[in-house]
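Folding problem:
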Amino acid sequence: MYESFYGLREKPFQIVPSPNYLYKSEKHQNALTYLEYGLTENVGFILLTGEVGSGKTTLVQYILSQLGDNTVAAVIFNSNLSAGELLRMILTQFELKPGDDKTDNLNALNHYLIQMYGSGKQALLIVDEAQNLTPDAIEEVRMLSNLQSDNHTLLQIVLVGQPELKAELEHPSMRQVAQRIAVRYHLTGLNREDTGRYISYRLQTAGGKPDLFTEAAVDLIYDVSKGIPRSINLACQAALVYGYAEESRKISQDIVRQIMADNLGVGLESVKQQTAADNPGNPGDPHPNPSKNGYKERLDAIEQTVQGLQAAVENRLGVIERSLNSQPSETVRKLTELLQQEQARNQALLRKHAHLEMQYLHQQDIIDKARRKYRQNKA
């Protein structure tokens, strides 16, 4: 939508983790160094924690992209599993066929790991969103770390999770697990300087100008995002949509202020209120369904409308340009007024699209938090 206007090959601030967009701030470089050391030295158990949206999954994707042929990896992204389900998922990720008997599954995994070791390969297990693991599942992971041969760890394990995971592993009941962790790192938000470099890096990676955002705009984005990459992405993505709607070649602090005024990329309060309004009679539902609010459907419909309207505006502009030298001034004036009306409608739709998109993305965070809280209360 705004890519061609700003000379971008693609959208630079998508929240989907991509190793191509990893900005190696000092903190992210430190995390990579710890991870690479742990994997190279075959320490067995590695822990990476960080704030929500701090870039943990992007780091994982980057590490995976750097692995050589001598490493076979199993990655678990859905960690809301029981101990038995987790073991079966691990076998599946290693392209093994799990059975119903736990002992048989453990024997199959152990046999596979010995085969990999014998062929000179290292097996790696990464569990993302590991704060969702039940205590039994965490204990299962600890038991898997016991698999070794000739003082060589057969399975490298990386647990990746939010601060709740770090707190859980500090509990006395988790002492045996915590003692196994040889390398650990906690990722926090970027500082102001790195926030500016992060925005410039992603713009440049997408083929755009690194100075598209003014310094004053970056200051405001840092204030509202607290340096958390995901929040920076949300704010910048909304800013590009707003800037495009206003045909602004620079993203200024005024555009960011407009986003703040409209509660886009700033906080969750307005979305929480909308969620409560859309689910009146079901406030305790631990598994809210995004389709209930219809955000995705509304986004798709508006996207199609915007695209059609843009085509109509461009066509109308061509008509006006062709008419300038051949039509009476009154006709030109009327056509110009119609064009201005279409442009105003276009801007309004773009703003509405940005607002719904930010609400949809924020709502996903609310759903995740609700599920985590439900599981914590249930436990």
In short: The two ends are 45 Å apart (CA to CA). The CA atoms of residues 30 and 185 lie 8 Å apart.
